[in-house]
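G., the chain you wanted modeled:
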Amino acid sequence: MVGELLRAMNLNQYSVSAAQPGLAVQMICGLKIPVPPLPDQVAIAAFVESQAGKIGHLMVGSRS
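Predicted structure as tokens:
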């Protein structure tokens, strides 16, 4: 998910020419990264945790 966000932000446009290409920190400091409101983040995390637990139980059960 983070990788997709970084690709969508097209950070190459902020790259500086140098022997070691990199990002100009001062150019990207002002970028806004959209995140859901905290209650939504908590709900998403709870859902992912519950699904990960189910998957873990299924994997354990399939090994026996």
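Helices lie at 2-8, 25-28, 38-63.

Shout if anything looks off.
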